TrEMBL record:
This is isochorismate synthase. The keyword Cell membrane does not apply. The lineage of its organism: Bacteria, Bacillati, Actinomycetota, Actinomycetes, Streptosporangiales. It catalyses: chorismate = isochorismate. It holds the Pfam family Chorismate_bind. Its EC number is 5.4.4.2. GO terms for molecular function: isochorismate synthase activity. Residues 170-417 form the Chorismate-utilising enzyme C-terminal domain.
Length: 427
């Protein structure tokens, strides 16, 4: 059911119960094929199904608006205030939990929060199940029935591929126009994204994609929220108590099968002036946006190399402590869009994206994750992902463009990033 989030009186009164589970559940195996929700890393995290509440947030008129985040924060506060909560575990991710995804551009509709009817969680050796029911409804089945394995995931089958909003050549030409304008001092950096379309013969089973992504990219955050599914390396924000963490990624090279060539590509990335510049913009953006909400922001002087299965990135972990009164979604709103997915300066980059990309990103490159009733949660950036709607999957990839960028190299980099979801869709 879709609930208008604007009037708290219209929100459901939920009864939410969390109880411990024995053992370490295979989280993906618990999911059924209907609209599964997930946030997973190295076998830990949360999965959910069903809808106790669904909150959708409309497009905004302001080009830099944050109303969808503010509306979500108010709606969550109202839901929590009306909920009867029985929590026998008392850990981050227990009690009332919402999975969410926000659009990249405020002028796009489709931002959503979903409180599942059932959530199964596992972290640090502790497992639990949370059930949520509306007032007057029967409580969903609890353990052990709630964690019975679902039916086996279905293969994807044959796929027909087609160009997205722009062909690879058209997108490369748009990158070239962006480079010219950056060299003309219009801005410092812009992130240009593209899409491709895959069509299957039958509805795509998201659980199949989740399983493949989790196995191939265990160090990434594998997610599924309202049809957007992927494995992102980029942690926008993790909150526990008043402590927050973020992982900034900017600057990319592919991996190589030969260890010597792989090491050479890593050294090239670390020594690249273009990639160090791109990374510096991302760090400066994070410091500037978190400063009004945090007592301090700590980040290393030099980035480290983060090696994933298909690519390697320059990476900088950052830590901060939220000031009293600052909410999780305040911080998410302040951080989005980072220079790693938008550009620098932000306003100029957003205008160029709207002018040159030729598509609506929807929730691609927007915040995706979960939040509990105490404000604890994890939010990533929806990268290396696809929007799955029935038998259709729309894949996305983006590249940071600066003065030294070469269009052909950026097209090749985008193809490398698209390969994550191409492989997940391929039987």
């Amino acid at each position: 059911m879709t609930t208008a989030p604007h009037d708290p009186a219209d929100l459901p009164a939920l009864t939410v119960r969390t109880v411990p589970l024995a053992g370490a559940p295979d989280l993906i195996a618990r999911l059924g094929p209907a609209a599964p929700m997930a946030w997973l890393r190295r076998g830990e995290g949360l999965v959910g199904w069903g809808e106790a509440a669904r909150l959708e947030f409309p497009a905004e008129s302001a080009p830099e608006g944050t109303g969808r985040f503010a509306g979500a924060a108010r709606a969550l506060d109202a839901l929590r205030a009306r909920a009867r909560v029985l929590d026998e575990v008392g850990a981050p991710g227990t009690g009332p939990v919402a999975f969410g995804g926000f659009t990249f551009d405020p002028r796009s509709g489709g931002s959503v929060l979903v409180v599942p009817r059932v959530v199964v969680g596992y972290r640090g050796g502790r497992a639990w199940v949370t059930t949520a029911a509306r007032g007057g409804e029967e409580q969903p089945a609890e353990a052990p029935d709630a964690i019975a394995e679902g039916p086996p995931p279905a293969p994807v089958g044959p796929l027909d591929w087609q160009a997205g909003s722009l062909s690879a050549g058209e997108w490369g030409a748009a990158v070239g126009r962006a480079v010219e304008r950056i060299r003309g001092a219009e801005l410092d950096k812009v992130v240009m994204a593209r899409d491709v379309i895959a069509r299957a013969r039958a509805p795509i089973d998201v659980r199949t994609l989740l399983g493949r992504l989790a196995r191939s990219y265990p160090d990434c955050y594998t997610f599924s929220v309202a049809g957007m599914v992927g494995a992102t390396p980029e942690l926008l924000l993790r909150r526990e108590g008043d402590e927050v963490e973020s992982l900034v990624l900017a600057g990319t090279r592919p991996r190589a099968a030969d260890p010597g060539e792989d090491a050479r590509l890593g050294r090239e990335l670390q020594e690249s002036a273009k990639d160090r510049e791109e990374h510096r913009y991302a760090i400066d953006s994070l410091r500037a946006t978190l400063a009004p909400l945090c007592a301090s922001v700590e980040a290393p002087e030099r980035p480290r190399l983060l090696r994933l299965a298909n690519v390697q990135h320059l990476a900088s972990p950052a830590r901060a402590r939220l000031l009293p009164g600052a909410s999780t979604l305040d911080a998410v709103a302040a951080l989005h869009p980072t220079a790693a997915v938008g550009g620098s300066p932000t306003g100029a980059a957003m205008r160029m994206i709207r002018e040159l990309e030729g598509m609506d990103r929807s929730r691609y490159a927007g915040p995706v994750g979960w939040i509990d009733g105490d404000g604890n949660g994890e939010w990533g950036i929806a990268l290396r992902c696809a929007l799955v709607e029935g038998a259709r999957a729309r894949l996305f990839a983006g590249c940071g463009i600066v003065a030294g960028s070469e269009p052909a190299a950026e097209v090749a980099e985008s193809e490398s990033k698209l390969q994550v979801m191409r492989a997940a869709l391929t039987d």
